[in-house]
Amino acid sequence: MAARKPRRKREPLTMRGIWLLMAVISAGLMAGAWRGVLRVDEVFGFITGAVCVLLVVRQNIWNFPVGIANNVFFILLFVRARLYGDMALQGVYIALALHGWHQWLYGGQARTALRVGRASLREGLALGAGGIAATAGMRVYFIRLGDAAPFLDALTTVLSLVAQYLLNRKRVENWYVWITADVLYIGIYLARALCLTAALYLVFIGMCLMGLEAWKRALPSAEGTEPAARAQQEVKA
After folding, report:
1. The pLDDT value given to residue 119
2. In angstroms, how far is the first alpha carbon of the chain from the final one?
3. pLDDT: is 63 or 191 the higher one?
4. What is the pLDDT of residue 87?
5. Cα–Cα distance between 200 and 33 in angstroms, integer?
6. What is the number of helices (H) and of strands (E) in the chain?
7. How far apart are alpha carbons 82 and 84 in whole angstroms?
8. Terminus of the chain with fewer CB atoms < 10 Å: N or C?
9. For residues 84 and 71, what is the distance between their CA atoms, to the nearest angstrom?
10. Quick count: other Cβ atoms within 10 Å of Cβ 230?
């Protein structure tokens, strides 16, 4: 009797539903931008940002080029809103995205694909101490620039950089830092009347929770029996 061919694993209904919902929302937002009701840079920032996070949840390497496009749209948006810390952060993100792109492909053992892991205590303490010092210094700098929200802008900038570093290293803790930063961002953007961007960050929080659960499941078992080939396939998918 001939062996049956293994069935191709279907994408979870929830994830497929989210992609469909994103397509519908994106079409509506682009229609609003075309009619002049919504800002073009904010609309495309919303779309590319949401797609980028969904790709990160799936550990898909294409999150990096999509994320770079998102950074460009947000640079235009933040210049107009006088959020200089967030504007400068986008340029740093572009450099970090290029670094992360390389890390995900070749940052593992023997230049193989990087696998999901946890941050060490030493790594966490170093990032925490550096983050506190950087926040204090950036706050003073943003006050001199006339930033609209110097402390919160400095804090969210530092949190975002820490989260991006952890993401580049595929540390599962990156999701906790992103969630903290996103909660603060929502308040900042609402205060600057960037309602669509605030809504995007609310969506981000939901996606971060999904990403946290997905990455926890991708952690190697205590015995280290998870096949390396599976991690390689997830990165290149």
Report:
1. 92
2. 33
3. 63
4. 81
5. 16
6. 9, 0
7. 6
8. N
9. 14
10. 12
Distance from C-alpha of 102 to C-alpha of 79, rounded to nearest angstrom: 29
Which residue's entry shows tokens 């110097």? 150
Token look-up 């990455």 returns: 215
Q: Give the pLDDT confidence of 105-123 residue by residue, as tens digits.
A: 887 777 788 889 999 999 9
pLDDT of the residue at 159:
94
Identity of the residue numbered 141: Y
Alpha-carbon distances, residue 137 vs 79, 81, 178, 237 (angstroms): 21, 22, 21, 41
Q: What is the C-alpha separation between 92 and 165, in angstroms, rounded? A: 11
Q: Quickly tell me which residue has 């790709």 as its tokens.
A: 55
Tokens 């170093």 correspond to what residue?
126
What residue ranges do the domains of the chain occupy? Answer: 15-221+228-236
* Cβ neighbours of residue 206 closer than 8 Å, sequence gap 6 or more: none
Instruction: Measure Cα distances from 28 to 16, 34, 35, 46, 199 in Å.
Output: 19, 10, 11, 12, 15
Task: Please count the CA atoms within 13 angstroms of the CA of 201 that sit on its side-chain side.
Answer: 21
* Tokens coding 83: 């959020």
Closest of 214, 222, 125 to residue 170, by C-alpha? 214
Q: Please choose, from the candidates 200, 188, 181, 179, the residue with its C-alpha nearest in 3D space to the C-alpha of residue 84.
A: 188
Q: Residue 117: phi, psi to the nearest 5?
A: -150, -175
